[in-house]
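Proteins fold reproducibly. Consider a sample protein:
=====
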Amino acid sequence: MGKVNTVLGPIATEQLGITALHEHIGFGLPGCDLDTKWWEARPKMLEVTIDKLRRFRELGGQTIVDCTGIGTGRDVSYWQLVSRVTGVNIVPMTGFVSGDTVLPYFRDKSIEYLADLFYHEITVGIEGTNVKAGAIKVGVSRGGLSELDERVYRAAARAAGATGVPILTHLSINGDRQMDLFEMEGLSLDRVVIGHSDGKEGLDPERDFRIAKRGAYVGYDTIGFDTEKGTPEVPAPFWARPRGERLDQVMDLFNAGYANRAIISCDANCFPLGWASTEHSVSELLEIFVPDLKARGVDDETIKMLLIDTPARFLTMRDPQPKLVKAAGEAAAQV
């Protein structure tokens, strides 16, 4: 029996149930948590968020992984309230969405320093609380992997190996290099999702097969960002795609025998902090995308694998890799 860290404490893997691996309670750019325009709207935020997650729960959903990293709206005490009210498990993360969102204080820090930071949030707690992260977020800056991104990737690999938690990435641009960095640090690629492989930005369906063949997971995790939803008032975001086009991409990987290397999620933001988006909810995973898959002939066993088995295997904390414990945790353990 394995365990996974949630905002209400560790739970047994068997309690995860249907899981969306890449979602957000409230994401915004660095500084959003200081903007009173959004945080003074907390009652409205709570109402909207609870409605969306209750709908997910009614449809059978039990767990979301909140991929909001350090400095972009992460608020574990708020998430605890949401989890208690809705009954949805929320797995929090350490790490940064990308180098673009790394707070200035951390931008010149060494790999060792960043690894210790992530290690601390996984083993001790996030931001002075006893809430422990259950995964690590890293990502590619706009324009491609930067030197800072690569430091963060290496640090995340060390912390992941030292604690047994997995890594989810933002954007699949430079996906081959991302995987190289993890392997250079000794991390098994089956602990990694190369995220947003289905987004328009940097789209490369052939890369999906390279990711799968190397043993990482392909993140089809912008489900519901469909061009058809755009309106003159709120256009579809630049990473949106036609619904059918995304489905074709997913089915190509499945038909090649790699359904076991895929994860599906929505990257929905229950209440965006400081930016507009088309109406989007994690419930679309179960209300729309799963029926779309079934209409294409995907059987119930594969659906269960996508929603339950793969997320459970991925999120379950593994035994630390001795080689990486010293690299990520020695300094933290001495504090």
